[in-house]
Here is the input.
Amino acid sequence: MNIVKINDKNDLLTKQLVKIWENSVKSTHDFCNKKKLKTLKHMSYKRCVKWNIC
Here is the structure.
């Protein structure tokens, strides 16, 4: 695995990373209903932007 630091963080990148997260959660957390997943997705997006991690 290669870890690459991305200096040009933008909205498209953030959306792509949140989509990867969402797909992972859908695959592994079958106990989360759609409403809960939507809430978690919104929270994860906001945190990524706030914490400047994606």
